[in-house]
Amino acid sequence: MTGLMLLLVTTLLPAGAAARTAPAASAPAAVAHPTAAPDVQPIDSPGYLRLVSSMKGHPLVVNVWATWCDPCREEFPDIVRFHREMGPRGVEVAAISLDMPSALKTDVVPFLAANGATFHLFLKTPGGDEEFINTVDPGWSGALPATFVYDREGKLVRSVFGSTSFEQLGAIVAPLLPAAPK
Q1: Rounded Cα gap, residues 97 and 72, in angstroms
Q2: Counting Cβ atoms within 10 Å, is residue 139 exposed (0-12), middle (13-18) or buried (19+)?
Q3: How far apart are CA 60 and CA 88, in angstroms?
């Protein structure tokens, strides 16, 4: 419960106020093309560990967000653009909504479809908030948005607390990509 309260309180802070990493200026949002209803799967702490493990061999970017979080909604087009441009280079992207399950069909799915999100999409299951936060990153307060970057071995290499941008993610992930063939 404490984690959820922290989550709610800290989302009221100005964007990036709880950031460990200062966000870069955001580029103009990519034009999203609405897609069919995306497939959103439930996820909990054990599921999160399975997600990270299953992506070994690829850099992984995990964005944690909610439809009621304005900074999350503002940065999401950059997450979609990042996936479109970096997915072909082997980067995996996942987004985990912290919305309530009752908002899945009314808010989450329409938002994801309107933004053209086609990557790994999840909705955190109710309960176990502290455990989930500590599973993702013990240094994370639960404030949104938050983005976590894993290397190809599944090791957490960077946590961005607060908004991020396409350019910032590109700079973080670039060293994790395999060297280009000569």
Answers
A1: 10
A2: exposed
A3: 13
Tens of pLDDT, residues 82-114: 999 999 999 999 999 999 999 999 999 999 999
**Do the Cβ atoms of 144 and 64 come closer than 8 Å?**
yes
Residue type, 71: P
Decide if 32 contacts 115 (C-beta within 8 A). yes
Contact yes or no for 152/57 (Cβ under 8 A): yes
Q: Are 66 and 98 contacting, i.e. CB atoms less than 8 angstroms apart?
A: yes
Tracing tokens 């989930």 back to the chain, one arrives at 132
Averaged pLDDT, 137-160: 98
Distance from C-alpha of 55 to C-alpha of 51, rounded to nearest angstrom: 6
Look up the pTM and report it: 0.81
CB 55 within 8 A of CB 87: no
Contacts of residue 108, defined as CB under 8 A and 6 or more positions apart, other chains included, come to: 40, 67, 97, 99, 123
* Distance between CA atoms of residues 19 and 16, nearest Å: 5
CA nearest neighbour of 58 among 10, 90, 80, 34? 90
